[in-house]
Amino acid sequence: MKICVLVKEVPDAAVEKRMDPNTKRIDRSGEKNLNPFDTHAIEAAMQVKEGGIVDVDEVVAVTMGPETAVRALHKAVSLGADRSVHLTDPSLAGSDCCATGYALARVLEQEAPDLVLLGQQSDDGECYTMGAIIADHLRMPSLTQVIKMDVQEGSLRCERQAEYGYDTVEIDLPAVISVGDAINEPRYPSLKAIMGAKKKPLESKSTADAAIETDRVGEPGSQTAVLAINPPPAKQAGEIIEDEDTDETIQKIMSWMDERKLLA
Amino acid sequence: MSGILTYALHYQGAFNKNSLGAVSEGARLAQQLGVESAAVVVGGDDVTEEMCASLGQYGAQKVFRANAPEGLGAPVVDVMATLIQERGYRYALFGGGLLGFEIGAGLTARLRAGVTMEVTRVKVQDGKLVAERPILQDSAIVDSGYVNEPGIIIGRLNAFEISPAADGASAEVETLDVQLSEWSTKARMVQRGEQRGEQVNIEDADVLVAGGRGLGKAEGFEMAEELAEALGGAVAATRAVVDAGWYSYSAQIGQTGKTVAPKLYLAAGISGAIQHKVGMQASENIVAINKDPNAPIFEFSDLGVVGDLNKILPKLTAAVKAAKGG
Ligand SMILES: Cc1cc2nc3c(=O)[nH]c(=O)nc-3n(C[C@H](O)[C@H](O)[C@H](O)COP(=O)(O)OP(=O)(O)OC[C@H]3O[C@@H](n4cnc5c(N)ncnc54)[C@H](O)[C@@H]3O)c2cc1C
Ligand SMILES: Nc1ncnc2c1ncn2[C@@H]1O[C@H](COP(=O)(O)O)[C@@H](O)[C@H]1O
């Protein structure tokens, strides 16, 4: 069995994220990191590989992004992926969800995996949609927000929380699964794995290599357009108490609640 | 002329509140565009003609009833894609929820259609729809337009108001036979809507003490319970701790949980993710205790306390008890 894990490079959580008013895209200039939600997808792949129920030949990390995105692939490999594929091409810049999903699906078609794993959301785009978009292109069944995944020969048994409680769903392979962050506790890479990551095979592909029709990607190929970026309605800032002396803090909270008649 | 097609999710004979909001919104927008508002209901024998027709009360003029499995995304994608392709609907609309994301995403791929998610408002500009989407922790709002039609709009939880159009109004119902795609039968529901943990009522409480991952472990909820008891309220939770098995699903607030609006909502160790916020932002007074001064919850709390809840909660409980003469 072959598993592909989709990973994305995103601005570091500590960096203030903002829109670039000129390009109308997310400003990605600061520190970057592997999307934290994707580490759960890599861990899920590793647990299938190490679980011994099915034979996993390889785990392949796949990303679409600018040159710098190789760092996300190195991180993915240090967490256990065997090799990685980097779809990168200037014509891909500015792709919306529709275009990104199409482009990634073309790369995945060439890899022909039995299982595609994704994170529950990208920390910057927060679209929650990439899994289901890719699944439809690949004509595979899919499920998002999965927090338990048992592998059997040829199928998966998955659990996830939906709008009315927890659902249990059985899915035939090949399939596309986005995992929720409660599915596992990702491991830390060993120093040796970090050092060795750059030595594992990394293949860079252009749109031509992946047989991507360039009029379907990038800003010109996107189906949505950012017409304007506006600030949110102004809201009165709340009061903030820094807890230094806890007894004093409690007094402040109590009088705040008392003023609002919340202690009646 | 075909107009807006809205997906109406239902469970155990009742429509989802967010779907009813979406049907109302679809009707409002269709009227402004001068087009038809339609809804689609998917399911088996449990979906009655009366139930479908009742969506007329929320402004749907036409309701399609399709015999296909409900609860998973792909069969609904098959139904809606067929309808949009054959009858030329210009927009597909979804209320907040998990399935709306999955179905909307599937349609995006199938129809090569633009999609906007987490939409809080939809407006008409030059005879087309433009969707407002807050991004980057709600720090900016993007106006998202569609280059081509159809366009797909996935609402944020509770974004669209339910507005009964006319009492007793009834929609025209058409039953459809749709060929499911081969891959959409490859996912099968084994069990739906399992309730984990005991049943608790958080919707009627005036005071809610909500606990998140910051409580550290399941036992951490004892501190929240003691404070809630002192305040005469109930305990609520985030999905993170419910998924972890620390607390009951029935106490969960948010996108896939309950929507609440108590007089006092006090968050202990909750970061304030959008999916949580959408279920409690209508609370009258929001107090947050979090040790991270940059936690998003401080952006929408009325009183923010930056500190360690392990130090604060027990003392706060004692102070509340004392104040109440306990
Ligand atoms: C489709 C979808 C649906 C979802 N539905 C829901 C939903 O219905 N409800 C929901 O809640 N979430 C939902 N989520 C999950 C949501 O995105 C967040 O992951 C979740 O709300 C986070 O829970 P949390 O705040 O408990 O945990 P975290 O985000 O991990 O936050 C824990 C907080 O505790 C603080 N903390 C830690 N230790 C201490 C201490 N000692 N003292 C004080 N503070 C401390 C930390 O600073 C941190 O801010 C959904 C997500 C998706 C993608
Ligand atoms: N450019 C990308 N390259 C590779 N994977 C991606 C990319 N964008 C999104 N993903 C994957 O899709 C998941 C969900 O992202 P999103 O739908 O953008 O919230 C992420 O956790 C990644 O696994």
Radius of gyration computed on alpha carbons of chain A: 22 Å
Structural class of chain A: alpha/beta
Query: What is the CATH-assigned architecture of chain A?
Result: 3-Layer(aba) Sandwich
Overall geometry of chain B comes to elongated
Envelope shape of chain A:
globular
Distinct ligands, ions and cofactors found in the model: flavin-adenine dinucleotide, adenosine monophosphate
**Approximately what portion of the residues of chain A adopt beta-strand conformation?**
25-35%
The ordered H/E elements of chain B are EEEHEHEHEHEEEEEEEEHEHEHEEH
The unreliable regions of chain B are none
Largest sheet of chain A, order of strands side by side?
A: 11-10-9-12-8-1-6-7-13
| Structural domain tally of chain A | 1
Helix and strand string of chain A, N-terminal first?
EEEEEHEHEHEHEEEEHEHEEH
Approximate helicity band of chain A: 25-40%
Rounded to the nearest angstrom, the radius of gyration of chain B is 22 Å
Number of strands of chain A: 15
Number of helices of chain B: 8
CATH superfamily of chain A: HUPs
What would you call the structural class of chain B? alpha/beta
Secondary structure layout:
The complex is a heterodimer of chains A (264) and B (326).
Chain A: E1 2-6, E2 9-11, E3 19-20, E4 25-26, E5 32-34, H1 36-51, E6 58-64, H2 70-78, E7 83-87, H3 97-111, E8 115-118, H4 130-138, E9 142-152, E10 155-162, E11 165-172, E12 175-179, H5 191-196, E13 202-205, H6 218-221, E14 224-230, E15 239-242, H7 246-259
Parallel strand pairs in A: 1-6, 1-8, 6-7, 7-13, 8-12, 9-12
Antiparallel strand pairs in A: 2-5, 3-4, 9-10, 10-11
Chain B: E1 4-7, E2 10-11, E3 14-15, H1 17-33, E4 37-43, H2 49-53, E5 62-67, H3 73-87, E6 91-94, H4 98-111, E7 114-119, E8 121-125, E9 128-135, E10 140-146, E11 151-155, E12 172-176, E13 187-194, E14 207-211, H5 221-231, E15 234-237, H6 239-243, E16 264-268, H7 274-277, E17 285-290, E18 303-306, H8 309-323
Parallel strand pairs in B: 1-4, 1-6, 4-5, 5-12, 6-11, 7-11, 14-15, 14-16, 16-17, 17-18
Antiparallel strand pairs in B: 2-3, 8-9, 9-10
Helix pairs in contact in B: 3-4, 5-8
Flavin-adenine dinucleotide sits between chains B (98, 212-214, 238-241, 252-257, 269-271, 273, 275-276, 289-292, 295, 308-310) and A (120-121, 128, 145).
